[in-house]
Amino acid sequence: MTGYETLELRPVAGALGAEILGVDLARSLEPRQFLEIRRAFLEYLVIFFRDQTLTPGQHEAFTVRFGPLSRMPYVKPLDDHPDIIAVLKEADERKISVFGGAWHSDFSFLDEPPLGSVLYALETPSYGGDTLWSNMYAAYDALSPGMQRLLDDLVALHSGSVYGVDGIPKDLRTSRSIAISRNNPEADSERGHPAVRLHPDTGRGECADPGFPLRPRDAARIHLPFPLAGGLPRPLGQSLRHALRHQ
How far apart are alpha carbons 246 and 130 in whole angstroms? Predict the structure, then answer.
């Protein structure tokens, strides 16, 4: 891929995503090279580095180059690394819910949601177990000008209700390997974030997580159509035109 002097890039889908080749994240990256990695992240939205071997400390050291680390509530972190959570599903855990198995933006219910997540895959199946991402810039750009103007005036009410009181059915089986806090009343509190967020680096508008209810910024000035009261239409960010499926 041209335009990068210190990186070799290989796009993996038309909508978003690229693999970065020949970079060892366990080593201290030169500032110039990291700036190009950050540029690739802004351009392709999700980036992949194959064949890495990282300690938890090296994982944290690379992540903090993007910004301050966020502590994730309601999920028990690693004992010696409180900024890292382990997402585990053992081979014999077949008929259980999948952690993060629905379309979402990670921990968007926080006062300051994280810029992103840096995932380090230690063990994966030989097939299956794919992760899907969606380009929410493209989802917003695909809307009509009238729908864009409507969403520009709305806020989405985010909550961590899945961790809250009666958030999930009590008989739902979850992985025994992930320690998740349930029935926490604090998780049910709502935080309003713009339905359309402007990225601080690119200035581009992107639609928020479609799973949360929408409300007007000024309830006296705008009437919210009923179909949007429960959140954005689910297909908005799930169109194959906007998505990437990758293992």
Answer: 5
168 DSSP 8-state letter: S
What are the phi and psi torsion angles at 217 (to 5°)?
-65, -40
Residue 108 has pLDDT above 80, yes or no: yes
Q: Report the helix count and the strand count for the chain, using DSSP H and E.
A: 4, 12
225-246 burial: b if 16+ Cβ within 10 Å, else e: eeebeebbeeebbeeeebbbee
pLDDT in tens, 123-132: 888 888 788 8
Contact 7, 33 (CB under 8 A): yes
Q: Can you give the pTM of this predicted structure?
A: 0.86
pLDDT at position 221: 46
86-94: which pairs have CB atoms within 8 A and are 24 or more residues apart?
86/177, 86/178, 87/119, 87/178, 88/175, 88/177, 88/178, 89/175, 89/177, 90/175, 90/176, 90/177, 93/175, 93/176, 93/177
CB 158 within 8 A of CB 105: no
Cα gap 218→215, rounded to integer Å = 9
Domain covering 68-121+134-246, topology:
Double-stranded beta-helix (3.60.130)
